[in-house]
Amino acid sequence: RSSYSCCFFVLPCCFFDFHGKYSRKQSKKSQYREYLDFVVQVGSVCGFHVEEDCLRIPSTKRVSLIGKSRTYQPAEWALVDKQITQCISNCRTCDVAICDRRVEFRRKDHSGVCEEADTEHSANKTETADTIWMPGFQPREKVEQIRNCASLPRDFVDDVVLSVANLLLNAVPQNSCSATCDGNTNTWNQGESLSLKEVAEHLNKEILKRLKSEYGGLQTLLKNSHQVFEVLNGRVHIRDWRKEKLSRRTKPEVKQRLSAEAFKTRLCWFFIHHPDGCSLPSESCPYAHGTEELR
């Protein structure tokens, strides 16, 4: 309804209609296929030639629907817009009524679009078509707020990462991890593992207050810092890249090739901050040991 020149691309995932969870109407189709057909029909009713494509993404729900052209001429836009408004008003889950009008709906042709049974209110709906899209509809903000810790200042994140790493390293100073690297036995301090609660108790209130507004808070920030930490079952560990090196050998060739493309594109945190340096030699570490190695 934005304009005649508007196009759309949609990648249907969760099964929702305009007001809540989508109710199935045909048992002969899979739930996914039936929902795709529902979205196609909405696009068609809104005057689009709806095309279907399959994306090359690692997901079971990868069918996309595209509307690039209209089924009517620009001169008919005002008339079709009224039909679209009526369609949106009528497109309800069949067992749901509008609370403020107590209007009942009945199913039409198993198509997923419901037709209003109470004609007394049809005129009222048409009169308000230009001023309201549907009762109770609240669009999301034009600028979506990022709250997964990705928008936090880099300095703030680095300070938290360093504080938590020092906490784990100093929790049990004598706790060391031994492993054989290139035939030589090296002792490298992996520190202690602590619960998220224990880690939070050692951070100041200002840091916790700032993280509280983010989804997942401290846990999300530590998981985002994949190079340094490993968070398993609510406990925080310092990542040992010697174990990661062993696991990479068993990865499929495609994943190994993708990993190689990101080799040495960031500085090694352990080379810069860990008291024992990096547990891996420079040629084996996926991160750069110094700016001269950066790709």
Automatic annotation (TrEMBL):
Q: What function does this protein fulfil?
A: Adenosyl-L-methionine (AdoMet)-dependent tRNA (uracil-O(2)-)-methyltransferase.
Matches recorded under PANTHER family? TRNA (URACIL-O(2)-)-METHYLTRANSFERASE-RELATED
| Broad class of enzyme this protein falls into | transferase
Q: Main subcellular localization, coarse class?
A: cytoplasm
Species of the source: Upupa epops (Eurasian hoopoe)
Zinc finger feature spans (C3H1-type): 262-292
The keyword Cell wall biogenesis/degradation is assigned to this record: no
Gene Ontology terms: biological process: tRNA methylation
C3H1-type domain: residues covered = 262-292
Alphabetically, the GO molecular function entries are: tRNA(Ser) (uridine(44)-2'-O-)-methyltransferase activity; zinc ion binding
Q: What is this protein called?
A: tRNA (uracil-O(2)-)-methyltransferase
Tell me the keywords, alphabetical order.
Answer: Cytoplasm, Metal-binding, Methyltransferase, S-adenosyl-L-methionine, Transferase, tRNA processing, Zinc, Zinc-finger
User: What family is it from?
Assistant: Belongs to the TRM44 family.
Q: Write down the EC number.
A: 2.1.1.211
Record's GO cellular component, any one? cytoplasm
Q: Where in the cell is it found?
A: Cytoplasm
Q: Is Oxidoreductase tagged as a keyword?
A: no
What's the catalysed reaction? uridine(44) in tRNA(Ser) + S-adenosyl-L-methionine = 2'-O-methyluridine(44) in tRNA(Ser) + S-adenosyl-L-homocysteine + H(+)
State the coiled-coil residue ranges.
Answer: none
Question: InterPro entries given for it?
Answer: tRNA_uracil_MeTrfase (IPR011671), Znf_CCCH (IPR000571)
